[in-house]
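pipeline stage [seq->struct] | target=DNA mismatch repair protein S5 domain-containing protein | organism=Trametes cubensis | residues=770
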Amino acid sequence: MAAATSERPESPPPGPRPIQRLQESVINRIAAGEIIHRPASALKELIENSLDAGATSIKVTVKDGGMKLLQIQDNGCGIRKEDLPILAERFTTSKLSTFSDLSRLTTYGFRGEALASISYVANLTVVTKTKADTCAWKACYADGSLTPAKAGATADPKSCAGNDGTTITVENLFYNTPTRLSALRGSSEEYTRILDVVTKYAIHNPHVSFTCKKTGNPSPDVSTPSSSTTAQAIRLLYGQTLAKELLHTSVSSSGKGKGRASSASGETSNEDVADAENSWNAEAYFTNANYQAKKTTLLLFINHRLVESSRIKRALEAVYNGVLAKGASPFIYLSLQIDPKSVDVNVHPTKKEVHFLDEDAIIERIADAVQQALIGQSQSRVYEYQTLLTGGIAEIPGSQKLKGKRKAREEEDEDAAEDSQPNGASKCDSLDDDQPASGPSQVAKRKVHSYQKVRTSLKDRTLDSMFPVTHPSQLKRTTSGGDEDNSPGTSETLPTVRDKEIKESQCFLKSVRDLRNAVTKAKHHQLSEILAKHTFVGVVDPARCLSLVQHGTRLYLLNHGALATELFYQLGLRQFGNFSRIRLDPPPELRMLIALAIDAEDGLGQSGMTKADAVDGNAPAQRIVDLLMARRDMLQEYFSLGISENGLIETLPMLLRDYTPNLDKLPLFLMRLGPQVDWTEEQPCFDTFLRELAYFYVPEPVLLPKGDARGDAEDSANEDVEAQKATLWQIQHVLFPAMARYLVPPKSLLDRDVVQVADLPDLYRVFERC
């Protein structure tokens, strides 16, 4: 066996593999992968082409993070029709013709590989028009050459309608490289990178208008005007919080001092001659020590080219190490202009890195200028801290110098000034002067006495606010309703307080705009501040709708019924044409409800009818039914009051979430719509209808139907108690928070509905006399 193994011939060692010339399509696809990494890198190349074309407006449209669609439209000089056949071929460019042109390069692109690389990994379409052309030309590209837009058509450019400039559409990016496509992040991550690229170029080119949005979105995510400045662009794109902390400095090779734009000396020297040959200048916008971010934001442009430089970033971060706290980072925008002869731009496939001469010296000069500017602002540090909950104000350090007789004399003057003020009246006379209240910026420098301290907080929340109480009438309707419904009016679950803003609906009717303007014009500023910053004390008389609230050191007695009427009127006006709905299940009959209201004598008195009208042969109930049925389309469209063709009340307008009106008042509300609403003119009709709707929503006492003799009196009393508890809970935890947020109180409420009953300083004087 061993002999047989030794006789087997040995296989020859493997030789070298033959060297083959790759196909042109493989070469181009490999090169495209080096330049186009993701949609953001493709957009960067296209934006630079638009800026090279002299565009003043650039619009970017994105779909699915740029993987399905990436379109850029500019108003630049356009592309000649004669150049379209070779537009997407590699190494075709209008920026240079010889290698020596690189030393004088002032444009973004120069290799002519961007469009070629895109055409090898995506479907590329170009629509362009120059000012000399009478029409635009559309061309489609695949693998670097023209391709027919449709099967059977020719590949030549086709004439079409278009504006001056160029529109480039990139579709199905990386459709033929599934590995690269699967390596990309989600569409939201890629769109964030696209917005970052657009934002950086918009800041560096404030004279160009940039717009970036997703397909289907009416409003753009980035939008900047043309003819702006760098500081204005930073404020628009990064916010006022960052912009107010910005510092600005300029430094150049000819400047003798750090941060100066030029030298003040007129003498020349050998050093000046050398600087003239290697001239450079830099402009920087950076944040001071008051701004602190979690990550350093560096926008670096060298010769208008967006690049990255780890050396510059480390040098600038070293400057901030002694200024910012640990873990805090700055925002820096740096634009560096260097003689093109001193810059090598051809060191990276995507041109995101460049090399330039005297790099260490230039970086040191820039870092020194930034440090000098930060030192100049060191005396204006701002620190935020929290004051006492009692309203105390931190004393100014300089005020500690007031000692002895001087301090005592000032306290005596303050007491004398307070004693000279008139005592608090029973009415809120101080509110008659319609003046805006002083803002928090007006800080008092004197000491806060005990009788001026406010010991309540607007953010306090009681435990009972977390457990809603439902009215018994709603519980009866939900249990006897039949089919289950998740609408607000018939849900079996208890309501929960939700913090959802009620937005003002968009309405173009002049009558509605006039009514809204009238509400705004009648606003009383000081009463608005009292309601917006009040602390609820309690309901003192539910039958007379009286409640107590505290604002500052004063106690006010309010008629919450009158305030609620104005609140619900304004909420109806605010949501005109865009109401939420309360669905009634089963829907009651309109005629039956109106007949019930007419049968009640008290209802007749409030509706303006007489007893004779009720028994008249003309049937007033039928007249009201006919009136509402004739206008049910208008009621449904404007007020969400749904009445079916059979005369059934299906839906009611919802004015305030988590608040359902007492449905026992529904018959009276429907009956009053007949005589109390002015149906002849548009504006009075809307005004009177909303007033009646507000009366329906007001939580005032309602006449209960007489109990049956066979009923249990004890059950009826328990039901009344539960109804009162539900009403009081809604007043405290739903109505008053809504008043603080939405009510624009008119001055007319001061006549009899808002009364000041106590003032803490006055009470202290009373007890001191006792």
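stage status: PASS
auto-comment: The longest strand covers residues 280-287. Residues 58 and 74 are 5 Å apart (CA to CA).
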